[in-house]
Amino acid sequence: MRYRNRIKLAPGLNINLSRSGISATVGPRGANINIGKSGSYLNTGIPGTGLYKRNRISGLNGRPEHLTSNSTNNVGVQLDLNENYEPVIQIFSESGSNITSETLINKIKRTSEYKENLKTIYKKYEDLIHKQTLEFTEIHKQIITPITRIDIEKEIENLKPEIYSKERFKKREPSLEETEKELLREAKENYRSILFWKNSKNRKIYISENLEVRYKTRLENWRHEKSFFENEESEKERKKNDEFQKEFEFKKRLLEGNLEGTSEAVLMNFETILNEINIKPEFFLDFEYDEKQKHFHIDLDLPEIENIPNETGSILKSGKLSVKNKTQKSLKEDYAKCVTGLGLLIAGVAFMSGAGVEKVFISGYSQRIDKRDGKEKNDYLYTIDLDKEQFSKINFEQIDPLETFKLFSHNISLSKTFEFTPIEKTLINQQV
Q1: Cα 280 to Cα 308: distance, rounded to the nearest angstrom
Q2: Is 395 helix (H, G, I), strand (E, B) or coil?
């Protein structure tokens, strides 16, 4: 296994995946071991509920005793599978040191928590082994039904250029009343004489002398600010609408090109979709697109059989996990499904690239060392000629890719034991 991530399964239980195996850690949150002078206890509970269960694992000198000291240390219990997929328990103190008490380990193995966690690990690992194989043998399930001419025509019909909406100038026009209030606030600050009876008269004079000029100035400033803002918005509207119109024309040209199967639209879409594919097998391809015929010609450099996961896992009646190497026949069958499924996936990408694409010709090859001269050569394993009409009718969730090949004109030499015999094919010369 090449997993290196950490998968959280449930509170208190985590699965660690690595090349050395799989492990579960039961730590202080939800499950922990307390070791004190009076012995060792396994505490399990549901975090946040206050519910817990406490089981004595061992007492002082092996004898059950009551807890006489509150001096305890939280430790972690790590449950691993070794290279032979057998469970191994390690107990670590807070300082990280390994506690190797066989008595303690044997007591842990008899707890229901240990047995349940071990079952979880076995099942999760079985599922992961199976999933790893499916990532190679079920590539075809990622195929999306090709886009149709009707779909593109509807998109063109509904396509409209975006229109910029100008911002409204939000600052209110100043009023005579607001200006008078402003001057009144100033007058109150300016005229605060202890001869209070003079303040009122002076304030009125101040307002009267300044009101007309102040109001006129505020109004002129507001109008200037409003005009400047609106001019800027008009210029922004012009530029934005020019951009939106260019985007609209570009999208429309691509959609029309998609409909007609032009090289510009088809190749742009083809490479974009290819870059979005996320599958396990590594592959390379060379292609040519014939705009006149609306045909793709693709040479597919297939993954090698060595890339196919070689392990299979199952849970025995005893509850243990059994992991074995696949038989040669099973491994070759997985490889055959992988490379044919990949061919169908790439065909799906080609058909998705343009509603005008009518046919896809795919030739899949594997690289092998020629035993005669020791040099690497390309062995073609299959060719297939796919037409869009038939391809669009397939429910790829339910198929066997080997059987789907039979719906199309193809050339493949595959024995009952899934052994490929190379066929003749010439490689094209445009690499992606």
Answers
A1: 10
A2: coil
Q: What H or E segment, with its residue span, contains residue 132? A: helix 112-137
Least confident piece of the model among 196-205, 380-389, 421-430: 421-430
Is the pLDDT reported for residue 18 higher than 60?
no
Amino acid found at 226:
K
Mean pLDDT (whole number) for 56-70: 40
Instruction: Report all structural domains of the chain as residue ranges with CATH numbers, in order of start.
Output: 6-137 (no CATH), 151-260 (no CATH), 261-412 (3.10.310)
**Encoded tokens for 116:** 């349940």
- Using alpha carbons, list the distances in angstroms from residue 77 to 3, 33, 51, 153, 322: 22, 8, 20, 63, 24
pLDDT given for residue 5 in this prediction:
28
Residue 74 has pLDDT above 80, yes or no: no
Element holding 197 (H helix, E strand): helix 196-260
38-60 burial, b at 16+ Cβ within 10 Å, e below that, comes to bbbbbbbbeeeeeeeeeeebbee
Closest C-alpha to 336, from 364, 314, 370, 362 = 364
